[in-house]
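Possible regression after last week's pipeline update?

I re-ran a chain I had predicted before the update to compare outputs. Posting the input and the new output here so someone can diff against the archived version. Not blocking, just want to make sure nothing changed silently.
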Amino acid sequence: MEKNSNDSRNLELGFDVGHSSIGWAIVKNRKNNGELEQEFSSFELLGCGAVTFEADSCLAKKRREYRRQRRHIRSTRQRIKRMKLLLQHLKILSEEETPNCAWPWKLAAQVLADRRLLNWQELWCVLRWYAHNRGYDENRQWAENVEHQEEKEDNERLQAARELMAKYSTKSMAETICKDLGIDYLNDKKNSSTVRYKGYGAAFPRDIVVKEVRTILNKHIGKLKGVN
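New output (post-update):
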């Protein structure tokens, strides 16, 4: 069948690319002048549809994971930077006095158990650890805007954390991690473990994490300069 060469010039092809689907539509401009007409009546819908992909069978899943990792890294760095600026402004710690600690979870658990208090170098390590692991906020006001798959993954992490807390009969993230690592935080001798607790993919409830951070800070009021 002979095809009019002008037909192809009057076709408009549109795509709507989503995270796991692609919508498409083909419209024909009834005008033969090749110019885009603004009137809706000048177009004829020739076809439309959508192609969907399973979340685990397309690049969308990887893109979503990478995007989420970038957001997490950016927000964590900004959070720690603000903490540093505050402590330096209060003349509590200088840039040279912000050390690293390999077991901040143990220090936190010891404070929660009333076994010890921390100096500012130790408290900084604990606060920075919580900045990296601030938990999952299950009451997020913006939850309706989160992609369904991402929200599902968060709920699975939250459930994993609750199962760990139930397993060890603990009430805080720091104590739970110590128990899982097989470290007695009431004993100062052992600080390391071969267990990789992050392999569980657990995300502790935000309200529990906030409560233990406030408890740690409250225990230092009047006992450590700058904590009020």
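Follow-up from reviewer: compared with the archived run. The two ends are 85 Å apart (CA to CA). Marking as no regression found.
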